[in-house]
Amino acid sequence: MSVHIDFRTIHTLPKEFFNVETGDTWFNREIQAYTDSLDTLFFTDQGMHLKALYQNGRYESARLTTEGKLTFLYGRLSITAKLPKGRGAWPAIWLLSDTKPFGGWPKSGEIDIVEYRGNHPDEVLFSLHTGTYNHRKDGHYHAVHPMTPEGFHTYTLDWQAESLSLDIDGEKIHTFTKGEHGRDTDDAGWPFHHPFHLLLNIAVGGMLGGHVVDADFPQEMIIQSITYEES
């Protein structure tokens, strides 16, 4: 299967692929409410904009998923995006299990292709979470890459049966390998052999977003394109 979505030419959300998630109660002590509004999700010739801003007495933002509509398993998934950089902004491009064959989070796995913390402006994160290895146990697969992501960059997940790698603009950044460093190879240690769906969002504050500086908002993440080539 191959997929290519260019948001510079598609100026409406392709509902056959995406869901808009809404609500004001989320995880990790985040303070935003996700809305289905043209204020937080809109399109220009640059691409699809997810915007976080303060209005209606709260921070509002956007969260999209492809759950139940578009899934990925092995191959190369590339997202060309421009990340926000304000203090307290926590944008993420990530994957969760679509069917949860081993149970809820983190047992069925999480793949964080790229996360950025506005309070740590010179680095991006690439992480995996499993039932045995996750941030609650302070033992997840975790790589920090020094980078100030000004402008658009292409973040590519190369997903194979026994490894997960991140490339940025064609440069290999890090590879996680099944069983490395003595990690278990059972489902609790490497549950990355079933379909996952994509999530795109900007959280505000919380465990990774950290201290929110109101003057730094609004902030937005712009998704230019998504390309997937199954292997």
Portion in beta strands = over 45%
Whole-number count of domains? 1
Distance between the termini: 8 Å
- Helix fraction? under 10%
At CATH level 2, the architecture is Sandwich
Instruction: State the total count of DSSP E strands.
Output: 18
Q: Tell me the radius of gyration.
A: 17 Å
The description of the largest β-sheet is: 10 strands, mixed
State the secondary-structure class: mainly beta
Tell me the number of helical segments per DSSP (H or I, 4 or more residues long): 1
Q: Keyphrases for this structure?
A:
2% helix; ten-stranded mixed sheet; 48% strand; mainly beta; Jelly Rolls; 231 residues; eight-stranded antiparallel sheet
Please characterize this protein's 3D structure.
The protein is mainly beta and 231 residues long. Helix content is 2%, strand content 48%. The longest helix is centred in the C-terminal third of the chain and has 4 residues, at 206-209.
